[in-house]
Amino acid sequence: MGKPTGFKEFTRELPAYRDPKQRLGDYKDLYVEFSDEKTQKQGARCMDCGVPFCHFGCPLGNIIPEFNDAVYQGDWKLAIDILSSTNNFPEFTGRICPAPCEASCVLGINQPPVAIEHIEKSIIEKAYELGYVKPFIPKERTGKKVAIIGSGPAGLAAAAQLNKAGHFVTVYERADQIGGLLRYGIPDFKLEKWVIDRRLEVMKSEGIEFKLNSNIGVNIDAKEMEAQFDALVLTGGSTVPRDLPITGRELKGVFPAMEFLSQQNKRVADIKVEVDHTGKPYQNGSLSAKGKNVLVIGGGDTGSDCVGTSNRHGAKSVTQIELLGKPPVGRDENNPWPLWPMILRTSSSHEEGVERQWSLLSKAFIGNEKGELTGLKVVEIEWKTVDGKPQFVEMPETEHIIPCELALLAMGFLFPDKTGIMDQLKIEQDERGNIKTTNYQTANAKVFSAGDMRRGQSLVVWAISEGREAARAVDIYLMGTSNLEAKDEGILAVH
Amino acid sequence: MSLKNKQRAFFAVKKGDCMNMNKKLENVGLYRSEFEKDACGIGFVANLKGVAAHSIVKDALQMLENMEHRGGCGCEENTGDGAGVLIKIPDGFYREEASKIGINLPEFGHYGTGIIFFPNNKRIVEICKEEIFKAAEKLNLNILGFRKVPVNNTGIGPTALAAEPHIEQIFVESNEPLADSKTLERKLFVFKNHATHTIYNTVEGTHDIFYFTSISCNIVVYKGQLTTYQLKTFYPDLQNEKLKSAIALIHSRFSTNTFPRWKLAQPFRFLAHNGEINTIKGNINWMNAREALLVSEVFTKAELEMLKPICDPGQSDSANLDNVVELLLHSGRSIPHVMMMLIPEAWQDNDQMEPHKKAFYEYHDCLMEPWDGPASICFTDGKIVGATLDRNGLRPSRYCLTSDDILVMSSEAGALVVDQSKVIQKGRLQPGKMFIADLEQGRIVSDEELKEKICSEFPYSEWLVKNKITFKDLPKPDIKYDRLEGKDLLAQQIAFGYTNEDIKIILEPMAEKGKEPLGSMGTDTPLAVLSDQSQHLSNYFKQLFAQVTNPPIDPIRERLVMSTFTNLGGASSILDTKPEHCIQIAIKQPILSDSDIAKLRYIKHPEFKEITIQALFPANGKLGALERGIDRICKEAEEAILNGNNIIIISDKGVNADFAPIPSLLAVGAIHHHLIKLHRRIDCSLVVESGDIREVHHFATLIGFGASAIHPYMAYQSIYGLKREKKYKYSDDELVEHYIEAASAGLLKVFSKMGISTYQSYHGAQIFEIVGLSEHVVEKCFNGTVSRMGGIGFDELAKEVLVRHQIAFPENTDIAPKLEVGGVYQWKRRGESHLFNPDSIHLLQYASKKNDYGIYKKFAQTINDQTAKAITVRSLFDFDFTNAQAIPLNEVEPVEQILKRFATGAMSFGSISHEAHSTLAIAMNRMGGKSNSGEGGEDEIRFEKKENGDWERSAIKQVASGRFGVTSYYLTNAEELQIKMAQGAKPGEGGQLPGDKVDSWIGRVRHSTPGVGLISPPPHHDIYSIEDLAQLIFDLKNANRAARINVKLVAEAGVGTVATGVAKAKADVILVSGYDGGTGASPLSSIKHAGLPWELGLAEAHQTLVKNKLRDRVVLQTDGQLRTGRDIAIATLLGAEEWGVATASLVVMGCIMMRKCHLNTCPVGVATQDPELRQRFTGDPQHVINYFTFIANDLREIMASLGFRTVNEMVGQADKLKRRDNITHWKYKHLDVSPIIHKEFAEPTTGLYNKISQNHNLEHILDWKMIEIAQQALKSKQKCTGSFDIINTDRAVGTMISNEISKIYKGTGLPNDTIHFNYKGSAGQSFGAFGAPGLTLELEGEANDYFGKGLSGARMIVYPPKEAKFNAEENIIIGNVALYGATSGQAFIRGMAGERFCVRNSGGTAVVEGVGDHGCEYMTGGIAVVLGNTGRNFAAGMSGGVAYVFDPKKEFPKNCNTEMVELEALMEEDFDIVFDLVSKQKEYTKSKLATELINNWEDLKCHFVKVMPSDYKKVLEERKIKGIVRVTS
Q1: Which of A56, A340, A485, A491 has the highest number of chain B CBs within 10 A, making it the mutation to test binding with B?
Q2: What is the distance between the alpha carbons of residues B975 and B925, in angstroms, rounded to a whole number?
């Protein structure tokens, strides 16, 4: 299988980014073309391990060595068959997944890992190109009706799976477009929205219904829904952002990242910037970074997206700060392979221009008399481990002000929005404020949940995995058994 | 009712209980008496002219004593395993003795006599005698009386004494006048069988004791559980000068048991057997099946009934062989004829065999399958005496004839000292050949003459031509063959349990390359019965294999002895010889293609009638459905036979949504055993047509349970499917051909690992242990197969089938079913569980790198906690704290003490990198444990300590079959020498290191040529039996007396008795490895399906050793997927005081279980020789030490909680284990683990762990004298000489002195000829073994087997006694397997050598004047000059070195196996080499032949042929171009 010596012969190679000067002028995909032959060589690097850690590291359980080999052999049909058996939306994960599979790739112990994510994207794009992606229309319907509430990756995955099992599936979305965070959280330069639309077309022809602007528990009665459907799957995401309640938070110029990012996605999609991604009117009008000194608070992916978007707006300067310390360039001894590497990551947005600072504690927003933001007072801190737990202390005489006119809060999300459906159906929460379930099922047998809403904020790949597993749980609840694939249990298991 | 009858009734009632009780007592725990094995020394002395003399008996007994070392001795020095002698009836002596007690014997030939063993109880003797009288009456025989045989039991050990029978001699005559003595002999046979059967059936407690040692009018047998020295003192008769015989045939037994069994001593009534019948279970089954068909002109119907049953599974293999010999002989065949029938030569693929002889064998092949296994058999009927050897010549037999007509034959030359000036002929028995002396004609009859006569007795060829049908000549029916595609194909594949892995990993390589797939590392998936994945039924069967008591065979290099031929059709009576018997269809191999099965199905022939039985059952999930299906097909088979069908096709075609397949193995087994019970089994052949057959193991199990031919149709359909997908360059037919080729080769390998060479012998031989099937299933379908843990029943089996069935035929048809990924050969999320998975690998590496015990505990948790998913047998155990008194941890012996008990596994430099190998060695040396060199030798630079005190030397040096780099110096540098009998991942198999892996470093260390491939043969060619192992242990002990000798075994049913034998062979350490251990490369089917988990093997070994009171003589060690303190604790409680941890150590050094060792692509530099990849190695000795410290501490915690202060206290305390309480799993809740955790009863004096050291009997060996004489030479290299008389009991002469040389002068040794010793006489085995440089051994006389074994630089010279009259070059002078594994040195042999001369020679130079079969086998270096004839299969597997053969008659090419070598003319430089060596031969040995050659060099030199290995030649040429002249080290 594969090329046994491929990993010795070829090195890792990925498509190059477009020139920053060029790409900063648009919101289009970052990459230049890459030939199939080159991708096949990347497939040949896979070592077909006796213990494929990638397959373990992937939250979806993608059967990576098998599709790598199929790609190496040039068998794109086989590749998509294998890939789509575990992943409904490789076109999303192939673009925006941080690729835990690559972090756990065995080759990665001492060499650059196999370019799994790129291969994944190539497979699905090739599959669309060659017409291998076809709607799956069940010949027989079970007659059962399932409502999916929330159309992010978890909801879409659950919808696709449940439809596959023969149930009537309706997806409800409170925003004006389907996709959740994919649609309004991730900038177009990382995920062009036609990619979502293309998939939605497939799903629609499979028979899945989509209802927009439908906020269950707000403009649609949740109880009625409960009565009307055989099962509900709550996949509303983790939408309450972490705030920064310090002096000056109320100043004009301090906004949550989502408010800023979703507006840009609307502009690219040619939709008026009126209603936000939760269906509510934007409170602060149209936001722009143009000509401003932008400060992004939070060193994660959302922060990075703010950086990229601000630069495209034409910001005067962009600074990104992070409370935690600067991660090492390579793995720390306490963070060995195959664990997720806590290392310094530099995204394409970072490359486009940003000043990054770490170990900074925000003390207060500073404003002018107009109530406009002029800067953020920060202090340098030092991290220490006390009783096995990290703690920080402020460094004396390091307080200073970072001047800025726009501050974007990208510090993650806390838990789902508890008003509306959760409230109406009295859904139980866990200690972190997420929906409490047993095997994706809430205490209300009819109601299931998946994705960030259940798990707390996480990766798209986890959302898809949750959606799939939840769908199986729903199917078993409705039918007694399920032919849908499970991640960790083979069909040959006997009980 | 008379008193006697009352007693009888009492016994009859009691008997049942008593039998059960006996059985229970004996077979408690894991031990089964059926596992017992034996091997021996045999021989005879005879007067060729038939002149009887007491001296013949006396000499024979003397010879017996001189083979004492071939016999065994148990825990007591004075209890032997058995010895005996068979002589012609000493009529004069008996007449006189009989008259003393008032018996008047009729004329010689008109009375029969024999010695009977009775239970030592007067009352029972009386009852037995009563039965004897009754039997005599029935046959109109008159019992003349009984004579109490005088015995003297002083000096007999208590164990033997405890079971000493009451011994009497019976005299019988016929009441009616009989035609001839043959008729009387026949009557006596019926009388003996009938009397014995009735007594066994009616008299309690007789089965193990009561026994006719013989009853005949020609011969008589004296034997008992005695040592060779005790025989003649025990039976004063034998010392009486009046006791005269022209023949005395002797036997000394070396058995693996020490329980008293007088009746198992040999000789039997007609033969003495040295060897083992591997196929005994099948042979007995087939004999039972044949019994219904017995028809004879010489026996009446009633007599035939009285004879049955012929075989007795409770007896030894040899005894059963004797039973059948008896039957065939008395039914009218001559004894050589019978031997040819039972132990045929390898005839099938022998093009050189005469047609009429081939016809004889082919005809008899229709009557009887070979009784297969290594065997040297001496036999006599009182008129002729002879001996025969198995087809592969796996036992030694040497003979000599003197001018005064004395013929001496024995396992060893020189066992009886004869006046050399009288010797006129010396020879050895050859493979498949018979040696006969006809005492009536007064001459030796040659094999050719004898067989010529026997083979032309009937027109066998004509009969065959007329009656036998060759399969390929059957007409091909004109029908359309199915092709399944798409969904249909998929549904069937799923229903039959296919996964993607099966297709990709198993079928693809077989179909594409014609090869069985290879894998590496061990197996860490659950046993079938523990797995929650639906299993193939074959997975519950573990293949058995040969170790120690018999050798596995090399099915590739020794292909000529292997055969896959078989016959289809019904069989007939074996007692007569008729042309109809060969009305059968001959097939070349058992795997049928689509068109083949059609030929059978549509057969149109008056003699053959086919019927197909559908092996399906309703897929409704109802309880009992499967068993009802089984009952139905059995009934149908029965009816089919009544209707005259003789070919039954059992087919599972037609699986659909309503019907599921009965597993083919279950169907075949059920029908096979049903028909055996009805005595109708041989009326038909069973052919299997099934979709569930794809891998070699599936074929093997089916054949093992009675299938004659197999059609794996889904494998073909899947291959056709692959072809559609993959666009192979081959046609469908070609792909199927490849597949059949691969499966066929795989089957030969499975047969050969058990030491079986023919399909027919394997057929029905049931050579498996079942793990996890219920008694009911086993009884019904696999009766007689070892199964010791019970398990699931028919309904559970049905459940496993139905899971697949439901997926294949789902109710919701929308979601197309897919093949599962598998996950058996690689870890997969949705597949089978593995002990080493991403979690456990990561935690282990992390813990040992960080030296964090907490993380180790997490790791241990992932391994130990198998409550949700059981993987190992030990997961079913819990510690039992009921009577445990916990103690504080600090009272437990310290970590340092425990660390000494650890070893790493044997991994060769070659399978793993130098970096990995030396890191392990350093770690072990630092912590006081032992690393193991593996079988690839070891670089001498590692013998010296490093400046920082680290030592890369492996404390354990392995001695494996390849003997790579095994020199005197290598052996000297060890604390322990390990003889690898088997390896868990491929027991019974050899190995191969491809040429591209042999780089210059490995080549140097292994004493071979870089770039040339190396083969490790399946057997050690110096261990074909237990007494051979004893010899190698003795050799190694001589080579390094400070080292412990360790014998590595692999767990299988019967390993306990093997271990007992090994303990008796004087091993210091016995390692019982689990089947799941690692490998650098091994066929997947072997990794998965051969051998047992160590829990079973270790427990059996410990229990059996305790039972035999031998446990305290040896250290018991175990390994196989051991990883945590819990694992070690369980191993200790089951009996191991030392443990090996290999795979986990590799993981600590960076191994991530790539399972790509065999591809040389290990990406972390552990198991690769690629210099680039080796640089990626990051292992550190400290990490390894950290890990072992964790395990030791973990173990100490468990010890404290159980209250053990030391490991020794803990060994074997199996009552501290119990079955886990919470086992509710539907499948393994039925398992009974009590036999494993059974604590063997031991008396207070019986040691449970190693307490005493073995007595290796080194005190009186010749080498001590030699060392004394050589003091100056050893001290200051002064030349010295010496002369010694030598006899066959002087074994391994020169080995110890070589050890002394190596200690002082290292690998270089002394200058040539510094020490020159002369010997006169017959040298014992292993003369000059591991002889070091500077030593010259000059022998006048002869030598036995293993001459110059492991020669390491010494010079050896041997020539016949100066006074001998025979032509040296025509007579045998040294035994088999000379210069095995020689690495350097020279040997000049004036005379012929036996089989396997220069086997695995890698650097020795030898001149010899003729060799037997398999000369220069596996040779990789050195030079062999053969000045005379060679046997067959010369140069098989020879990859290096050169042989020059003098072949004036141009006969050599047909004897040479040219698969790896080319024959070419000599070049000038060759002539120089040969001339030089022949000149030396002349100088040293005064050889007539050499002198003649030198004198006529120019005329004769053209007759030399050069044998040149092709690869070697290529490498040499390449090197020449590169300017490298010397290639061998």
Answers
A1: A491
A2: 11
